[in-house]
Give the backbone structure.
Amino acid sequence: MHEDRPAAASRHFAGVPSSPGVAAGPVMAPGDPGPGVVVAAELAPGDVAALDPASVVAVVTAAGAPLSHASILIRSLGVPAVTGMGPAILAVAPGTVVLVDGDAGTVCVAPTVAELQPVHTRQLAMTERLDDARSRAAEPAVTRDGEVIPVVANVGSAEEARLAVREGADGVGMLRTEFAFLHRSEPPGEDEQYRAYRGIADAVGDRPLVVRTLDLGADVPAWDPQPEPNPALGNRGLRLALARRELLVPQLAAVARLARDRPIQLMFPMVTTIDELRSARACLVEVAGGVAIEIGITVEVPAAAITAEVFAPVVDFFAIGTNDLTQYTLAADRANAAVAALADGLHPAVLRMIAEVTKAAGAHQRPVCVVGELGTDPVAIPVLLGLGVTSLSVRPNAVARVKQVIRGVRLDDARALAGAALGAESASAVRTLACPPA
Ligand code: PEP
Ligand code: MG
């Protein structure tokens, strides 16, 4: 399968940093026994889910970008990754040792002993930093001025929910349910979904659990994807669920069954208009038969952010999906390496969207959780808290580190920083404000 790959011209390749850390190993294809570095043209979320974490030491792809669903899943595996390398990387022969630097976004082919020498030291330092953060992960994250900021987790399975709890998560802030819909001939029915959610609820115990209804479409195609010219702007998330009630109704029924014995919060993705939310809520009321379920929306479409005050009286909570909110605000495809540098959630335009949401939420005493990847960025965390975000939902292996960053934040300073960030001219200006050069 490698014979039509272009010839490798150089030993050093640069791409987009997509998962932190450094590792070296022989090049292999997805599914090869390993251990090794998976090198592929591109990976879909289902391909990443099929990888054996025990045999993959790093991932490198010719296409792709850090905010794609595939990259999000790779970061959950905890291995370094570089995306957007371009097709030349595919010419590296299987079995060749490569050194992958997921922080710098580089790949070195056939590294010398001198090039490999710092790898172990860096891996050790990273483990030490993580162990240090983990030593206090079970404690709440309290800012320097005494505010408790819940740090919850984004999970997709019971196994991940158990990991999240072990990593110190204060609950699940976003259960991504659509991955259960991948790679099958028909969608899961109510019973199957109920059993899956039950398993996750058992893992989470009495901590909060937010279930997001299926967000199929765009780069997470269902078992029967309908061709669309521009799927990211197409029939995705709640739009698709409302158009195909045969998918939504069993899911709502499964969640309602679970809600009979434990509190559940339900969140709808990709909401654009209040009418969509009203339709979804009416569907829930019909299916749930009087069971109380709090509802929220994932704010990830600029229209919903700008009109947040319209939604605030109708919802119990807001989540902010900064991955999509960034993509749609900056018109930068989250899976396209060519615009990855543009897709920075600290751009003041995205921050102003977030500020609209926190303002409307504050006026109605609604909590606001950031569920996008921006919530794991140590530079962004003080800005988000300063804007009035009340909790963060992050991948399980980031919980300890995020709690540690929060413990260093003073909210008064964060508010001043956020105010300056809203008036800044660019994402890099915000990064400089948040992290002034020494
Ligand atoms: C987001 O868009 O930020 C989000 C959390 O949802 P997803 O990444 O699944 O689209
Ligand atoms: Mg989203």
In short: The longest helix spans residues 113-134.
